[in-house]
Amino acid sequence: MKLTFLGAAHEVTGSCTLLEACGYKILIDCGMEQGQDIYENCHIPISANEIDCIFLTHAHIDHSGKLPALAKDGYEGPVYATYATHKLCDIMLKDSAHIQEFEAEWRNRKAKRSGEKEYVPIYTMEDAENILSCFKPCDYGKEYQILDCIKARFLDAGHLLGSSSIEITVTENDQTRTFLFSGDIGNISRPLIRDPQKPDKADIVVIESTYGNRLHGERPDYVSQLTHIIQDTFDRGGNVVVPSFAVGRTQELLYLIRDIKDKNLIKNHDNFPVWVDSPMAVETTHVYSNDMMDYYDSQTLELLKAGINPILFDDLKLAVTSDDSKMINNDQTPKIILSASGMCEAGRIRHHLKHNLWRSDSTILFVGYQTEGTLGRKLLDGAQSVKLFGEEISVRAHIEQMEGISGHADKNMLLGWLANLKNTPETVFVNHGDDSVCDEFAQQIMSVLKFPEAVAPYNGAQYDITKHVCIYGGNRQKIVKSGGSAKISEAFRALMEAGKRLLRVIEHNRGGANKDLKKFTKEIDLLCQKWDR
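User: That's the sequence. What structure does it adopt?
Assistant: C-alpha cells below.
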C-alpha cells in the first residue's frame, strides 16, 4: 500500500493524491491550482488509462478542475462522488472547459500575428462531457464494494452541497487498513447545509489544514452582521459588492438576504435589488432550488415544507449575458452585487471592482478565504491601489470581511473531528494548507491529541504504508519568482520529474541482486559526475 501526494501539499489548492493497493491505482481528487503557486505540483506518475478509479470529495475546482484533462488523456473509468457533486461538476467543469477554449482562441489569435507556436487548451468541452459521463453517484453512509479488495463510504463533510470525506478500506495480504480522506471539512452552523459528520475509524488519515492555525471565534450572528453592513452602505448611497464563490457561498448569502428581507431589517431602502452576476452562480442557484432534500439542514427543510424557497425572493435579479452585467453598473440605485470569482482573480467581479473600488460610499465585502497572492488578499491586506484592465484604481471603498462565515473548519473543529476517532491512527498526513500552517497543524495533532505521528508531506512525497517508511520526501524547492512569474522552465520541470522517476526506480530495485545494484549505483555516480557542475 502506497500513498503519493501530487498536489495541495504545503499549499491550499490543487488537491490530488494517489493510493496504490492490491495492484490497483486510485486517485483521490484531481484539482487545479489557484492563486499563488509556491511549490511545483507533480505530474501524475502514471498514464491516465492506468488509473483504475477516481474518488472526488467535492465539486470545487481546486479538487475537481483537472478531471477533464484525464479524460483527454484516455481515462474512461468510474468517478465516485455524491449525486450533488455530480450535478455541481456538470456546471463547474463545463464552465472551466469554456474558459480553457476561450483562452486558447485568444492566445492563438495573438500567436498567428507573432508567429508563435499554437496554444493547446488544457481540455475542451468534449473532454468535460466525457469525464462527466464517468460519474457514479453515491449516497452518504452507504458502504460500496468498489474493487475486489476495496470498499468505500462517503461521509457528509459539511463544506459544500454534496461535499464528502471518504473512507477507503483496503484488504491486502491479510492486512486491512482504513484510509480516511477528509476533503474540505466545513464550518458549523452555516446556512442550508448540515454540520460535518465526524468519522469513527481510520488507520491512515489525510486531513486538510486551511484554518489549521486559526480560530473563527464565537459564532457571530450572520444576519445582524450583514444587515449592519448593508444598512450603512445604502445610507451612504453606495453598493455592497461581494466577491463570492459561485458555488456554495453565493447560495448561502442569498439565504441570509432572504431572511433579512422577510424581517424588513433594512430601513428606508425598501425593495433593494440584489444582483447575482455570474452565469455559473445562476445555474448553481437553480440546482440548489431543485430536489436536494438529502443534503439540507433541518432549518432549510422546515422552510421547504412550509412552501418557502430558501434562496429566492422578490427583487432578486439574475445576470446571465454580458449586457445584463453592464446594466448593473449603469443603474445608480444602491444594490447588492454578488459576483464571481470569490478571490477576484477572474470573472465579472473585476468589472464591478473597477466601478466601485474608487467610491468611498461603496463597500467591498469578502465572505471567504483569500489565498496569498490573490487580488482579494491584497485588498484585505490594505492595498491603496490596484491595477484592473490596465488601469490603476484607487481603493477608497470600505473593505469589510464577514467574520465566521468561512466554509472551512477552524483549528479546534479539525482537532475535534480527529478526536472523534475511536482508534488511534498510525499516521495523519496534513495537506491543503499554507506552507507553514501544514507543519504547525501537524505538531498540534501530536501535542494535543497525542497521536504518534502527524506529518505534512511535500508535493511528490511517497510513503509505503505497509512498511511504514517514506520512500521519497517530495520537492521542497520553492518556485523562484521574478517579476511575479515563475522562472522554472518546462525543460527543468521535466528534469525534476525525471529525478522523481529515478527515485521510484531505485525503490523498485530494493531487494535486487547485489551485482545489479552495484552496476546501477555506478551508472548513477557517472551521471552525477557528468552533470554536477
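Confidence is low (pLDDT under 50) at residues 482-488.
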